[in-house]
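USER: My hope is that you can spare some time for a protein that puzzles me. I am handing you a single protein, as its sequence and its fold in token form. Walk me, if you will, through where the backbone shape changes along the chain. The protein I mean follows directly.
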Amino acid sequence: MIRLFDLLFALLGLVLGLPLLLLLALIGLWDTGSPLFLQQRVGRWQRPFVMVKFRTMRPDTAWVATHLADASAVTAYGRFLRRTKLDELPQLWNVLKGEMSLVGPRPCLFNQEELIHERAELGVFAARPGITGLAQLNSIDMSSPRLLAQTDARMLADLDLAAYFRYILLTLLGRGGGDRLL
């Protein structure tokens, strides 16, 4: 049932949000010359997939976890996108393709070996990664791999339709900082 809502919301978000997506992409093109950020991430069953986001950092920034990146690499427009969580909108495409869910553990990088190990031990990779989840709502980022994996596992164990909608609503209301670098 959750997958059905993922498909419905992703399709609606992409269709109805198309004017906003185009506007944000145009501003991003002016800001960095490259509005989209494509990065290989660890997906369900530890399979790689390419996650799409709006670019918030200069294109020459090293590909590292957000908490390891230099804060000065984030552009002023990028700070706005992160603060409003609009940088996540292109991931609706990943949701539509079945690579992600609206709610699930945030997809990590392949070089985050400690987090991958912790998540594998707890069975977190049996779920699709998500745009938002319990860890993001509680401002737990990838700098605490064990806590993050435990939080992801707890969320997945309790994830039902009511929790799914609660996480989405709380995210839309601006709760939590997730892994944003400001």
Summary: The longest strand covers residues 36-42. The chain has one domain: 2-172.
